[in-house]
Amino acid sequence: MRVGIGYDVHSLVVGRPLILGGVEVPYHMGLLGHSDADVLVHAVIDALLGAACCGDIGEHFPDNDPQYSGVSSLMLLKKVSAYLNNRLWRLGNLDAVVIAQAPRIAPYKEQMRINIAREMGVTPELISVKATTTEGLGFAGRGEGIAAQAIVCIYQDNNC
Ligand SMILES: Nc1ccn([C@@H]2O[C@H](COP(=O)(O)O)[C@@H](O)[C@H]2O)c(=O)n1
Ligand SMILES: C[C@@]1(CO)OP(=O)(O)OP(=O)(O)OC[C@H]1O
């Protein structure tokens, strides 16, 4: 059994869609990035790679590679899940938190769980997505960006 953590931050800017956990959340700003900047999925990917001691997201998907320009981060998650599955790593559970002063994430959390679970080929019962503000403090509190943290537990399946 292994655990891994992931953390990511992206800036909020006008003129971009806000994609979190593969859900387009209605808001007047979105996250800036080379990909769709899905900060939640990026944290999940880094937690998975960290647990398996397999590097980090930038190593697997460089942000100067044109093939990842505007890419759906759920697609990157699918690739990482396949990469780990091929090495016999299976998900125990995943817990994540989106750190955003606004918008309110609660109405979209279930769909985020479903999206992440689908790309990983697991049941949504293994996936937890939460949200918190920072009570107005720091970059997230000022609405300059959104952060996400994820932690996963994986185990090696030696029965296949
Ligand atoms: N962007 C957010 C932030 C928070 N929530 C929900 O509100 C609850 C209370 O948040 P606090 O930061 O005041 O502790 C939190 O537990 C979430 O359920 C949200 O939906 N979207
Ligand atoms: C996802 C990748 C690749 O498109 O780019 P970004 O969307 O900029 O995200 P970031 O978390 O800064 O780094 C990982 C990347 O290399």
UniProtKB/TrEMBL annotation:
Its cofactor is a divalent metal cation. SUPFAM superfamilies: IpsF-like (SSF69765). Residues 1-154 form the 2-C-methyl-D-erythritol 2,4-cyclodiphosphate synthase domain. Its EC number is 4.6.1.12. One of its GO terms (biological process) is terpenoid biosynthetic process. Binds 1 divalent metal cation per subunit. A divalent metal cation binds at D8, H10, H42. InterPro entries: MECDP_synthase, MECDP_synthase_CS, MECDP_synthase_sf. Homotrimer. Involved in the biosynthesis of isopentenyl diphosphate (IPP) and dimethylallyl diphosphate (DMAPP), two major building blocks of isoprenoid compounds. Catalyzes the conversion of 4-diphosphocytidyl-2-C-methyl-D-erythritol 2-phosphate (CDP-ME2P) to 2-C-methyl-D-erythritol 2,4-cyclodiphosphate (ME-CPP) with a corresponding release of cytidine 5-monophosphate (CMP). This is 2-C-methyl-D-erythritol 2,4-cyclodiphosphate synthase. It comes from Sporotomaculum syntrophicum. The lineage of its organism: Bacteria, Bacillati, Bacillota, Clostridia, Eubacteriales.
